[in-house]
Amino acid sequence: MFNKCIKSFAYFTIKDRLPQILTRVIDTLHRHKNEFFEEHGEKGVEAEKRAISFLSKLRNELQTDKPVTPLEDELPDSALWNQYLDYQRNLPNGNGEPSWFQSPWLYVECYMYRRIHAALAQNPPIDNFDVFKEGKAQNFFESQEAIIALCTYFQELLKNIKDLDEKQLQEELFKLLQVSLWGNKCDLSFSAGEDSSQKSSPLQSLENMIPYILVNDMEKVWSLLVNAKKNRTERSNVRVDIILDNAGFELVSDLVLADFLLSSKLADEVYFHGKSIPWYVSDTTKHDFNWTIKQLGSANHMWMSRCGINWEGNLKKGVWVFRDHMFWTLPHDFSSMSEVAPDLYAELQKSNLLLFKGDLNYRKLTGDRKWECSVPFHQALNKFHPAPLCSLRTLKSDTQVGLKPGQGEEIQASDPEWMGGCSAPFALRSTG
Ligand SMILES: O=P(O)(O)OC[C@H]1O[C@](O)(CO)[C@@H](O)[C@@H]1O
Ligand SMILES: [Mn+2]
């Protein structure tokens, strides 16, 4: 059963929030008219007009529950999108012609972002313009305090990391996992573009956030990494993959975690997986990834620039690698990765631990189904396990698994709005 009942957060998103996001995108293009003229002359302004009419048509389709239409652009993934539309048409319990209000929330929301991409990609010379760039940069700049606090904390930690015993290392890992988890609160699609930068110091608030962690498998993450290190051989490096989510403060928290994994020698290499097109407003593209590291490297704050320079070095040495496979911006949930993107699945199989950031990844891990909350995480993964994996996600949608029997009811009693609120289930699943 897909999330679509009228009361559900899914319905509220499609009816109210997605049109808001589209309106912001149209407004962004209007506000860049002069820039397009300066850069590209009349051609730039005409392209902007065409893109705006594409987007206005899209918003009308969405708001009036029109059928989902096949993609007509020549982009490399459009055939996969159109095959998926056929799959939706032939669903046994489908409601006939796929449309915005009748089809699964996950599908139509992904489809909207892919149509936004098409509106730009089909209108050169503004085809490479990222309509979400401003919001992502603003999140970064407005989180400066928190970024300074985190970089300062981390550089202090690095000074004596060699003297830390196992217990102390474990404590630091747990802190940085939680900073990365809570960094996921700062996303712009959930806030529909409203400011969601990290204002408070990320390390101060960890203690009082503990009660909001619904599933906590940090111990398992620790023992998995310690064992991987023990079994490490000359040939086989310990590799951790971080499937990224949002740019801005969350990305900095992920980079700090990755640096800690290397500096503590818990891992030898970290692979980052970002998005190949602008996605869900604040998700990290290759440009965002490189821009963030450059911004830190050139910051006039000593510890920020130290981080940025070290991270540029990690990329140059190849101990950090950035990838952006197109699968991450398709509508498929991850149980179909092995057949839709076997190359990516094989790549993930090389990892000792996959860290999936954020709510959208969690929904794709669990098929975005209305699971009973106490269904085990392993079962909801529906045979997707290329490697041991862990989800670091703040709850922003209706899907939740892996709770203890009765835990869902308990939370419901104390906070009826908890689905789509801001508690943070934190779950590890190691392959059986
Ligand atoms: O950035 P995150 O954590 O993936 O959150 C994105 C989530 O926000 C939403 O847009 C909220 O509606 C969901 O559709 C999506 O899963
Ligand atoms: Mn996101």
TrEMBL record:
GO molecular function: metal ion binding; phosphatase activity; protein carboxyl O-methyltransferase activity
Domain of life according to the entry: Eukaryota
Cofactor: Mn(2+); Ni(2+)
Residues of the Damage-control phosphatase ARMT1-like metal-binding domain: 13-410
Gene3D superfamilies per the UniProt record, alphabetical: 1.20.930.60, Uncharacterised protein PF01937, DUF89, domain 3 (3.40.50.10880)
Catalyzed reactions per annotation: L-glutamyl-[protein] + S-adenosyl-L-methionine = [protein]-L-glutamate 5-O-methyl ester + S-adenosyl-L-homocysteine; beta-D-fructose 1-phosphate + H2O = D-fructose + phosphate; beta-D-fructose 6-phosphate = dihydroxyacetone + D-glyceraldehyde 3-phosphate
GO (cellular component) term, any one: nucleus
EC number(s) per entry: 2.1.1.-, 3.1.3.-
Gene Ontology biological process terms in this record: DNA damage response; methylation
Record keywords, A-Z: Hydrolase, Manganese, Metal-binding, Methyltransferase, Nickel, S-adenosyl-L-methionine, Transferase
Record bears the keyword Manganese: yes
InterPro entries according to UniProt: ARMT-1-like_metal-bd_sf, ARMT1, ARMT1-like_metal-bd
Family named by the database record: Belongs to the damage-control phosphatase family. Sugar phosphate phosphatase III subfamily.
Function recorded in the entry: Metal-dependent phosphatase that shows phosphatase activity against several substrates, including fructose-1-phosphate and fructose-6-phosphate. Its preference for fructose-1-phosphate, a strong glycating agent that causes DNA damage rather than a canonical yeast metabolite, suggests a damage-control function in hexose phosphate metabolism. Has also been shown to have O-methyltransferase activity that methylates glutamate residues of target proteins to form gamma-glutamyl methyl ester residues. Possibly methylates PCNA, suggesting it is involved in the DNA damage response.
Domain notes: Subfamily III proteins have a conserved RTxK motif about 40-50 residues from the C-terminus; the threonine may be replaced by serine or cysteine.
Protein name as catalogued: Sugar phosphate phosphatase
Organism this protein belongs to: Ficedula albicollis
